[in-house]
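Cross-check.
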Amino acid sequence: MRDAMLLSFDEPLATALHERAERVLGQTVKRLHGVRGMRRAYRLCADLVDTETFFLLDGDFEIDEHFNAEAAAPLGTDVAMRVWQAVNPVNGLTYGYGGLKLIRTAALHKLGQAVDVLAALPGRVEFAPAVAGVTRFDQSPFHAWKAGFRECAMLARGCEYGSSSREARARLTAWTSGGGGGRFAHWARRGAADGVAFAAQAGSDPAPFAGFNDPLWLRHRFEAVRL
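Predicted model, tokenized:
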């Protein structure tokens, strides 16, 4: 049996989603909480698991009741990570954003440099066509804004996983003006628009993205937006 880990920082539903993951997977799901900096958090996850590959769930990921972890095929020798799709409850998109991951543990100790940290894994990333759950990022104004801001800034900058520009444009349209509902949907759309503007201002300069994986940097930026 592979280990499973839920990585959370301040998501309001993280404890309930952790309990759900343990029930659905039928095993103990380890949890790492409150670590600042995604790169450091991912490496600590690798230190805490005991299997060569492990399932990684974000702190806002609601795993599907029917997901069968035992049926997941092993990773190919050249594959560092597999990502199952997740449903976006705000705009209806279904793709790898916020999805369930199966990661080669050793690869996390050899991360390269990328804005999306896991895009810098040494090895191929494959995307499973199946949906494994819902990414419940719409838990507060801040969490909804942060999701839209980070994802759309990265899409506008250029997807580090090799998606086509056509796919990126379609996703940007859905994030910034797509339908859907939810209590905090307008914050997700505001964050998406702010992310596009941020990427346009940054251009090809990587320096503005230095704080992109720091939750406190994101919180300060959100508070400035609200003023």
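The helical segments are 14-25, 38-48, 141-157, 165-177, 185-202, 215-226. The chain has a mean pLDDT of 93. Passed to J.P. for a second look.
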